C-alpha cells in the first residue's frame, strides 16, 4: 500500500455523513494544494485538488465536525484508492480518493488572541510509525 502525505487547505466545509444501516459517521472533504514554480523566469502556480474520505468515527466527531471549516490548513496522511462510478449517460468515470489515516488541523489564531494549537489526529500513532509534527533535523 502506498502512503501519501499532503498539506493544503479545505476547499469547503466537510460533509459529515452517516452510513446506511450502522449509522456510523464519516467525513468527506476536498483539500487544495498549490505548488508555485518558475518557468523560464516567469512565476506560475498549479493547484491540485484531493477528494478525501475519513472513516474514523472518533476523528470525524471529535475533530473534523467541530473544528474543520473552509480554509482550514490541514496535513493529511493516508492511502490512495480508485473510485469508479457510472454516470447517468452510461459512461464509466474514474477518480482517485485519499483515505485518511491521520489528520492534523492547523487552525489559525482566533480573534480573541488564543494560541495557535494544532488540533486533530486519529486515535493512536499514524500507520507509518512517524509523527507529522516532528522537526526536520536540518
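^ C-alpha cells above, recovered residues below v
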Amino acid at each position: 500500500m502506498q502512503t501519501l502525505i499532503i498539506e493544503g487547505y479545505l476547499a469547503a466545509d466537510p460533509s459529515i455523513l452517516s452510513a446506511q444501516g450502522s449509522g456510523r459517521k464519516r467525513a468527506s472533504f476536498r483539500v487544495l494544494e498549490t505548488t508555485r514554480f518558475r518557468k523560464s523566469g516567469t512565476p506560475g502556480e498549479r493547484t491540485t485538488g484531493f477528494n478525501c474520505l475519513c472513516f474514523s468515527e472518533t476523528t470525524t466527531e471529535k475533530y473534523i465536525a467541530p473544528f474543520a471549516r473552509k480554509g482550514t490548513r490541514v496535513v493529511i496522511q493516508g492511502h490512495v484508492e480508485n473510485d469508479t462510478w457510472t454516470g447517468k449517460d452510461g459512461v464509466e468515470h474514474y477518480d482517485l480518493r485519499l483515505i485518511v489515516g491521520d489528520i492534523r488541523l492547523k487552525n489559525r489564531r482566533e480573534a480573541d488572541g488564543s494560541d495557535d494549537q494544532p488540533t486533530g489526529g486519529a486515535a493512536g500513532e499514524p500507520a507509518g510509525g512517524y509523527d507529522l509534527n516532528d522537526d526536520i533535523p536540518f
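The radius of gyration is 17 Å.
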